[in-house]
Amino acid sequence: MRIDVVTIFPEYLEPLNVSLVGKARAAGRLDVRVHDLRGWAHDRHNTVDDTPYGGGPGMVMMTGPWGEALDQTLADGYEQGAHDPVLVVPTPSGRPFTQETAVELSRCPWLVFTPARYEGIDSRVTAEYATRMPVHEVSIGDYVLAGGEAAVLVVTEAVARLLPGVLGNAQSHADDSFAPGAMADLLEGPVYTKPPTWRGRGIPDVLLSGHHGKVARWRRDEALRRTVAHRPDLVERADPAAFDRKDREM
Ligand SMILES: NC(=O)c1ccno1
Questions:
Q1: d(CA 157, CA 139)
Q2: d(C-alpha 248, C-alpha 77), whole Å
Q3: Number of Cβ atoms within 10 Å of the Cβ of 135
Q4: Is 119 a catalytic residue?
Q5: Catalytic pick from 25, 33, 38, 161?
Q6: Angle at which helices 99-106 and 149-160 cross, to 10°
Q7: Which of 65, 151, 69 is nearest to 115 (CA)?
Q8: Confidence band (pLDDT; 50, 70, 90) for 185?
Q9: Signed CA dihedral, 17, 22, 26, 32: sign only
Q10: Which of 92, 188, 193, 197 has its CA 20 to 30 A from that of 136?
Q11: Tell me, what's the pLDDT at 210?
C-alpha cells in the first residue's frame, strides 16, 4: 500500500516513522510520503487560506495550493507505479470511521490523505477530485480537532495493522473489538498475563483450566458483559445467530 499525505504540518506525521507503521514501512509493506502544502503556495507568505464567502468566523483553505498539490502528488504517484488512488478527507462532518471502514481502506492500493486546518478546505476541491477517484470523508469521532493530522495518524494505524504481514499473529485482529464474525460488534473482554497473582489479585480460574471451549465461552460472556456496560447500542446490533454458531464451535 502507498499512502500520500498533503499537510501544512509535515512534522505532525513523524509518528508514522515509529512502532507498527514504522516497521511496516521499513519492511516495505507500506510506502508513506508526506508533502508540505505550502510548497504549492506561491505568494511570499505561502498563504493557503482566505476568508469564507458568505462571511462567518475562521478561514477556509484555498483551492489553488490544494489543486496544484494533489495534481502533482497524483502525477508523481502514477509515474512511480501507484494506481487506483482513493482520497481520504478527515473531517468532523464525515461518515463515522469504523473498523469496517478500516477493513475497506486496507484493501485499497493507494490512499491520499488531505487533512485540513481552519474551517476546512474549499468544497470545490473534493468535488473536483471526486470526478477522478473515490472520496471518503471520514470522522474519527463526534468532536472537532484543530486539524485533520491526528485523524490521519489514527486512520493510518487502524488500516496498516490490517495489512498482510504487519501484525505478527494474523489471528490478533480476528479477535479485535469490532472485528467481523461471531464476536462482530462486541468489545474485547478483560485480558491477563503473568504473574498469576499481583497485589493479592488472581486470575479467573477458567483461564488456567486449559479447557479451550470453556475459555472461549468465558471470553464471549465477558465481551458481552463489557459491551452491555460500555456500548449497549452495539448489543442491539449483535447477531444472536452468530452466538449460537460460536456456542456450537466451543
Ligand atoms: N472528528 C474528526 O474526525 C476531525 C477531523 C478534523 N477535525 O475533527
A1: 15
A2: 49
A3: 19
A4: yes
A5: 161
A6: 70
A7: 151
A8: confident
A9: negative
A10: 188
A11: 97
184 has a pLDDT exceeding 80: no
Rg (CA), the chain: 22
65 lines ligand 1 (CB under 6 A): no
Q: What is the DSSP letter of 51?
A: P
Q: What sections of 27-173 are H helices per DSSP?
A: 63-79, 99-106, 123-129, 149-160
Whether 176 sits among the annotated catalytic residues: the reply is yes
The neighbouring-strand residues paired with 139 are 96
Residue found by looking up cell 464471549 in the block:
220
Q: Is the pLDDT confidence value at 239 over 80?
A: no
Q: Nearest Cα to 1, choosing from 70, 21, 66, 180?
A: 21
Active site residue: 49, 149, 176, 185, which one? 176
Tell me which of 87-101, 137-151, 166-180, 226-240 is least confident. 166-180
Q: Which is the closest atom of ligand 1 to the Cα of 140?
A: 3
The predicted complex's ipTM stands at 0.96
For residue 123, report the phi and psi dihedrals to the nearest 5 degrees: -65, -15
> How far lies 197's CA from each of 193, 204, 222, in Å?
10, 11, 20
What 3-state class would DSSP assign to 236? Answer: helix
How many alpha carbons lie under 13 Å from residue 49 in its C-beta half-sphere?
15
In this predicted structure, what is the pLDDT of residue 49?
97
Peptide bond just before 195 cis, omega within 30 deg: yes
- Residue 141 CB-half CA count within 13 A: 8
How do beta strands 49-50 and 60-61 pair? antiparallel
- Rounded distance between C-alpha atoms, residue 6 and residue 113, angstroms: 6
The question of whether 240 is a catalytic residue gets the answer no
Longest dimension (CA), the chain: 70
